Amino acid sequence: MKKNRTLENAIATIPSGAVVMVGGFGNPGTPFSLIDELLRQGQTDLTLIKNDANEAGHGVSRLIENGQVRKLITTHIGLNKVVIDHLNRGDIDVEFHPQGMLAEKIRTAGSGSFGFLTDIGMDSEITRPDDLLDWQGKTYKVEMALPADFALIHAAQADWLGNLVYQGSAINFSPLMAMAANHVIVETPDLGAPGRFKPEHVHTPGAFVDCVVRLESLTSDYGILEHHVRR
Amino acid sequence: MMSAVERILSRAVIEITPGSIVNLGIGLPTQVMHYLPDDFDVQIHSENGILCAWKQAEPESMDPFLIDASGAYVSLREGASLFDSAVSFAMIRRARLDLTMIGAFEVDAHGNLANWKIPGKFSPGIGGAMELAQKTKRIVVLTTHTDKHGLPKILETCRLPLTAKACVSRIISDLAVIDVTDQGLVVREKLVDISNVDLQALTEAELTFAIEGKAL
């Protein structure tokens, strides 16, 4: 079954109030085209789960600046002063997790499990007494799985069964989120027929993917950011 | 005369031993890579999913899909691998990294580190810092000795929310190299011509002095 959809139809399945995972660490892996369509359609009261808030004026920062986001579940927003200002003013609820804990919570949801035990952050204010569990003579922190309604994913290449291949450091959270959301929307500039990938080279198997949007071209967001080039 | 940042970075690079796996945190630490010789035997881990990240490529071969955790464009050395964030942090939590260099808002005499939250002012967030600080074999903090108001960043006890407790082995500031020991902070090297009294005056925690190298 072909999973090809138009950009507009794919994003129109997302209602206001949805919990939406967004792949990407910085720019690589951020599905800028899916995000910009969500900006255009204007769904509100969103909960976003993303490693970072992109940089001001780009990616999920645009959704936050446009007032469409109620809560951001993230690890680090240090490169986005605009979102830090939103946080300081109380315009948005920001929940910080250690990065590997966020990844593991998503991975756990994606494996159909409900939580895991860890010692990360036990000595810090992110751990409340209620989070602790004594088990066989040791104390652990319980981390619950983190599922979502939707995942927005950028793949370097895909086929219409939804098999995905990522590129460079754009892998990051994408394969984890593709397993953890109930409805997975993928954008790719390179969509082809099944059989194009060596089966053992597929990163995300198509069973996890609900629809694939072929991008006609990539905007400047996907290119080199001059201010990150070392001179 | 080197700038404060150059003094920190040029001293920090000496901490990297051949054959090691090293994570360089956002800010000053990621810049340490540019002080490494091109043929140096080290594997740089970047928590966004790279082992064997290396210096920025030539402009014509820069890859927009290949950055380090600070957003800087990197290249890959021979033998590099790319992986997802769960694998990246499995590597960290399983203590496969030998050294992490990390920035600090505050660091204290007990080796406690605070670098993720200044309530109401600047909360960049945790990023990979908690897991790196808790699980890497050796943590070296790179920091200016005082903040932009001239106030000490090396404290008796951290006041900001902690990233991790008792995790720091060594502090490299623009003024000195200081070890965290069971007996408190011990100054091993001075990086500028400064008296013990003046260095102590810029440091909240009590210092003892056991200079190994010569003052520059």
UniProtKB/TrEMBL annotation, chain A:
<protein>
    <recommendedName>
        <fullName>3-oxoadipate CoA-transferase</fullName>
        <ecNumber>2.8.3.6</ecNumber>
    </recommendedName>
</protein>
<dbReference type="GO" id="GO:0042952">
    <property type="term" value="P:beta-ketoadipate pathway"/>
</dbReference>
<dbReference type="Pfam" id="PF01144">
    <property type="entry name" value="CoA_trans"/>
</dbReference>
<dbReference type="InterPro" id="IPR012792">
    <property type="entry name" value="3-oxoacid_CoA-transf_A"/>
</dbReference>
<comment type="pathway">
    <text>Aromatic compound metabolism; beta-ketoadipate pathway; acetyl-CoA and succinyl-CoA from 3-oxoadipate: step 1/2.</text>
</comment>
<dbReference type="InterPro" id="IPR037171">
    <property type="entry name" value="NagB/RpiA_transferase-like"/>
</dbReference>
<dbReference type="InterPro" id="IPR004165">
    <property type="entry name" value="CoA_trans_fam_I"/>
</dbReference>
<dbReference type="GO" id="GO:0047569">
    <property type="term" value="F:3-oxoadipate CoA-transferase activity"/>
</dbReference>
<keyword id="KW-0808">Transferase</keyword>
TrEMBL record, chain B:
<dbReference type="GO" id="GO:0042952">
    <property type="term" value="P:beta-ketoadipate pathway"/>
</dbReference>
<comment type="pathway">
    <text>Aromatic compound metabolism; beta-ketoadipate pathway; acetyl-CoA and succinyl-CoA from 3-oxoadipate: step 1/2.</text>
</comment>
<dbReference type="InterPro" id="IPR037171">
    <property type="entry name" value="NagB/RpiA_transferase-like"/>
</dbReference>
<protein>
    <recommendedName>
        <fullName>3-oxoadipate CoA-transferase</fullName>
        <ecNumber>2.8.3.6</ecNumber>
    </recommendedName>
</protein>
<dbReference type="InterPro" id="IPR004165">
    <property type="entry name" value="CoA_trans_fam_I"/>
</dbReference>
<keyword id="KW-0808">Transferase</keyword>
<dbReference type="GO" id="GO:0047569">
    <property type="term" value="F:3-oxoadipate CoA-transferase activity"/>
</dbReference>
<dbReference type="Pfam" id="PF01144">
    <property type="entry name" value="CoA_trans"/>
</dbReference>
<dbReference type="InterPro" id="IPR012791">
    <property type="entry name" value="3-oxoacid_CoA-transf_B"/>
</dbReference>
<comment type="similarity">
    <text>Belongs to the 3-oxoacid CoA-transferase subunit B family.</text>
</comment>
